[in-house]
Amino acid sequence: MRAENGLDRRGFLTRTFALGTTLLLAGCDQLSGSESFRRLLFRAETLTRTAQRAILGPDVMAHEYTEADISPDFKANGSTDPQDEDYLALSANGFQDWKLKVGGLVERPMEWSLAELRALPSRTQITRHDCVEGWSCIGKWKGVPLKVLLDKVGLKPAARYIVFYCADTLDETLTGGAKYYESLGLADANHAQTILAYEMNDQTLTVPYGAPLRLRVERQLGYKMAKYVMRIEAVTDFADIDGGQGGFWEDRGYEWYAGI
Ligand SMILES: Nc1nc2c(c(=O)[nH]1)N[C@H]1C(S)=C(S)[C@@H](COP(=O)(O)O)O[C@H]1N2
Ligand SMILES: [Mo]
Questions:
Q1: Domain membership flag for residue 229
Q2: pTM score, whole prediction
Q3: Is 26 a member of any domain?
Q4: Which atom of ligand 1 is nearest to the CA of 78?
Q5: Residue 153 maps to which CATH number?
Q6: C-beta of 227 in contact with ligand 1 (< 6 A)
Q7: Count of domains observed in the chain
Q8: How many Å separate Cα 229 from the centre of its chain?
Q9: Residues whose CB is less than 8 angstroms from the CB of residue 137 and which lie 6 or more positions away in sequence, other chains included
């Protein structure tokens, strides 16, 4: 339990930035008004969360919402229908042959089928997804906490980052196609709300939202939440992976720590 005064301070900060928060709670709807007005509000909200985390520490939980808050039409973004051959073959039979592989700097590399992941402890959370493009949606996610898997494989002392390799190649005119990937530091990887989700809004995760398994990292922006996860690797450093910045969008200039 966090100290009561921590919660009081959170309440103070929330009230201080109530305007931005209230407008963002509109959910999926694009906020009305000019683009710059939206950006201003988005920054106010970003400031709130950043301040909250600075005051409350690295374990602070992202806000969780109620069933009534769930967006009726959650936006699907980025890849929504991967055409990679391996992926199409897996999706053609309902991901029955799919297995999540977890390896790298671990004591016991392991793999899990979807059924096996579903048999592990799960967490359900209703959270708000904030995309860097300035829209937000609230959804309900169920999945296995990443920590459960990391504890089973046992991280070696040299492991400092967890890398997520995805099935989808993004069409990029400038650089040619590249596979989506992402990475987290250990604090976020072990956070209670960091889960590998196989259900969204009480349904089996569908292709647009990252089937069969997608990451939820509730204190960071949407691009950290890798969809179509195939393999997870513990590493010391991500400098030698693809563009070296720790993720598909990071390699193209986005922040590695996309805190909100
Ligand atoms: N594999 C993969 N993961 C991805 C993306 C992607 O294109 N490919 N897009 C990211 C971005 S920018 C966002 S906002 C979210 C969108 O998730 P959604 O489709 O569930 O809204 O997924 C993130 N994860
Ligand atoms: Mo995004």
A1: yes
A2: 0.83
A3: no
A4: 7
A5: 3.90.420.10
A6: yes
A7: 1
A8: 11
A9: 27, 28, 71, 73, 74, 75, 128, 129
